[in-house]
């Protein structure tokens, strides 16, 4: 008889600790000492679990923590690795200056966001490996995503930004904004370990010269700049600069992972869930199918176990009473569209797969004069943003990004977030067995126009020009890639107002696919806060 990870029936007593969830308790993470979420043991074929969560990013991690705190065992399935074992260089992750196989998900060449320099391609050969950053290619865009236990938190810039309330009300009018801003955003920020740079230290720190230059130039052009919180520990970064701690943010580490300093989900939400003793994680397991169980209630979940070369070494099928999709905007949308259109979950609504947007992302670089150096040492965690979101015609929030080349280059780099109205649809392609995304190259134009409204004015004020050598040969805008995929299973359209998938009791969506294509700022705090809100309702109504 197959081993049962946990029994199907849970006693009422196991639900009593629900109070802890209602109170929103998550002890502030102990900086840099929290144990990484340790995978208990991988699932075996034939296992039955009460709850299976697909993916270990923000939505999945919140769901797993609150359920385990409520006494409910959770099995998480993650296609990426558990990033807990150092490589031969003694480091878990590689840096951006010397990428190796650890950098990319199954690529033989790097695929960097800034992939040109002085007009020449800048990518290099690497061994194919289940690395931490995936650049997933669709017809007209590439979507960057984290792969591993912790999802996007492993590779992102850590910027923990709450959108303006009026914009949140515009994008998700059905959600009670009072509850979001009074309860769930604060709960998310506490759980994520968001903290802010000390302005006095920032003002003199050599590693933030680039941000001070960017802020002052924005000010010259009449734009407001704001400090932005981050989940990277600023006390740790201060020690890095002082030379009393190993460098990470100051050692060109970010999009291929941070060896120190960053409070990624494996050190916060997932570590807290693991500490309940009720969490298991199966890394290097990719969910490929979900359908109603042949016998009884619940769902049958099929997954492929991968080796670090990406080869399938086993196919397993388990059953689960409830399944939460936390595979990210792209991962969840692809899975659900495929399940609907191949007949495994045929009653999923037409809205599944629709409403995908890129958060208006566009990247751009400017060339500064020799007398405006941006610094040879640059902290990889952005802390300043140009806030032009109130502009009625061209809303734009632009993070002042590092260009951590390890040497002075006089480059100012920005990731602009704009209000781009275009939305794409995921469709199952029976010819390839894959999923296509209908995004068109021309659809980034509204983002370019809004960003140009800011950076043309800054260039005019400074007498400077764009760098046209960073994103191609004479190409100004980095508009063919996305850091912030959002939507595909939009709240209130593809799901009910708490992420339940209609027609399939026990199936839920819990990640960035719920957000309708735009947040106006970097999205992970909103994804986390919405997941906090939704799981509270689901625990109160769907368990017990
Ligand atoms: P996500 O974190 O992507 O987690 C999904 C997980 O599911 C991943 O671990 C996948 O490997 C896994 N998965 C996918 N499909 C399967 C499957 N079939 N079976 C098993 N597992 C699967 O989803 N956001 C900010 O707010 N601030 C920033 O500073 C910021 N910087 C960024 C920088 C970069 C380079 C990138 C790529 C993103 C950045 N983001 C930032 C975006 C942020 O990381 C992203 O919105 C969230 O990670 C999305 O959270 P989800 O829970 O939706």
Distance between the termini: 27 Å
Supply the CATH architecture.
3-Layer(bba) Sandwich
- CATH class, named Alpha Beta
Radius of gyration, in angstroms, nearest whole number: 22 Å
Spans of at least 5 consecutive residues with low confidence:
1-39
Q: In total, how many beta strands?
A: 23
InterPro entries: Cholesterol_Oxidase, FAD/NAD-bd_sf, GMC_OxRdtase_N, GMC_OxRtase_C, TAT_signal
Domain Glucose-methanol-choline oxidoreductase N-terminal: 146-169
Protein name: Cholesterol oxidase
Pfam family, one: GMC_oxred_C_1st
Q: What features would you describe in this structure?
A:
It comes from Streptacidiphilus jiangxiensis. Belongs to the GMC oxidoreductase family. Its EC number is 1.1.3.6, 5.3.3.1. This is Cholesterol oxidase. The chain has helices at 13-16, 18-22, 58-69, 165-171, 177-192, 199-204, 209-220, 234-242, 269-275, 328-341, 445-462, 524-542, and strands at residues 48-54, 74-77, 116-117, 120-121, 133-137, 142-146, 225-227, 279-282, 285-292, 299-306, 312-325, 354-357, 362-367, 384-388, 396-401, 411-418, 426-429, 434-437, 465-466, 477-478, 481-482, 486-488, 507-509. It has 544 residues and is of the alpha+beta class. The structure holds flavin-N7 protonated-adenine dinucleotide. Flavin-N7 protonated-adenine dinucleotide binds at residues 54-59, 77-80, 144-147, 151-152, 155-159, 255, 286-287, 326-329, 331, 335, 483-484, 511-512, 522-524, 527.
């Amino acid at each position: 008889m197959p081993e049962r990870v946990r029994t199907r029936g849970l006693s009422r007593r196991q639900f009593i600790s629900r109070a802890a969830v209602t109170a929103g308790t998550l002890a502030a993470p102990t900086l840099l000492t929290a144990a990484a979420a340790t995978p208990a043991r991988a699932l075996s074929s034939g296992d039955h679990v009460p709850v299976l969560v697909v993916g270990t990013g923000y939505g999945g991690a919140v769901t797993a923590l609150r359920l385990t705190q409520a006494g409910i065992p959770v099995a998480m399935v993650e296609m990426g690795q558990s990033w807990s074992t150092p490589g031969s260089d003694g480091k878990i992750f590689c840096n951006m200056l010397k990428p190796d196989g650890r950098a990319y998900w199954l690529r033989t060449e790097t695929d960097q966001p800034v992939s040109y320099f002085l007009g020449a391609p800048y990518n290099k050969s690497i061994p194919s490996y289940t690395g931490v950053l995936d650049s997933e290619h669709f017809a007209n865009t590439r979507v960057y995503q984290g792969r591993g236990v912790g999802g996007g938190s492993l590779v992102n810039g850590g910027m923990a930004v709450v959108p303006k309330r009026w914009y949140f009300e515009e994008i998700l009018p059905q959600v009670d904004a009072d509850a979001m801003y009074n309860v769930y955003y604060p709960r998310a920020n506490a759980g994520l370990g968001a903290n802010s740079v000390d302005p006095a230290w920032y003002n003199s720190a050599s590693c933030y010269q680039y941000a001070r230059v960017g802020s002052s130039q924005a000010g010259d052009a009449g734009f407001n700049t704001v400090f932005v919180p981050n989940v990277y520990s600023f006390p740790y970064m201060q020690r890095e600069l002082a030379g009393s701690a190993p460098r990470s943010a100051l050692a060109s580490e970010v999009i291929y992972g941070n060896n120190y300093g960053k409070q990624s989900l494996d050190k916060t939400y997932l570590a807290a869930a693991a500490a309940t003793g009720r969490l298991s994680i199966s890394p290097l397991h990719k969910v490929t199918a979900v359908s109603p169980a042949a016998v009884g209630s619940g769902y049958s979940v099929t997954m492929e176990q991968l080796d670090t070369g990406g080869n399938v070494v086993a196919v397993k099928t388990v059953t689960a009473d409830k399944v939460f999709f936390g595979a990210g905007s792209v991962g969840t949308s692809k899975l659900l569209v495929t399940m609907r259109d191949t007949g495994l979950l045929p009653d999923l609504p037409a809205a599944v797969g629709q409403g995908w947007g890129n958060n208006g992302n566009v990247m751009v670089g400017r060339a500064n004069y020799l007398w405006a150096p941006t610094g040879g040492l640059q902290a990889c965690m952005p802390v300043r943003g140009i806030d032009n979101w109130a502009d009625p015609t061209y809303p734009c929030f632009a993070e002042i990004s590092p260009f951590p080349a390890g040497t002075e280059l006089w480059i100012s780099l920005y990731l602009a977030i704009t209000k781009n109205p275009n939305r794409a649809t995921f469709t199952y392609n029976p010819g390839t067995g894959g999923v296509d995304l209908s995004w068109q190259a021309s659809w980034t134009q509204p983002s370019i126009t809004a960003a140009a409204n800011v950076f043309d004015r800054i260039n005019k004020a400074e007498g400077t020009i764009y760098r046209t050598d960073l994103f191609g040969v004479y190409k100004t805008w980095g508009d063919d890639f996305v850091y912030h995929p959002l939507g595909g299973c939009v709240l209130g359209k593809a799901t009910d107002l708490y992420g339940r998938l209609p027609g399939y009791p026990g199936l839920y969506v819990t990640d960035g696919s719920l957000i309708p294509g735009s947040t106006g700022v970097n999205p992970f705090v909103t994804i986390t806060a919405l997941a906090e809100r939704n799981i509270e309702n689901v625990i109160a109504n769907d368990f017990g």
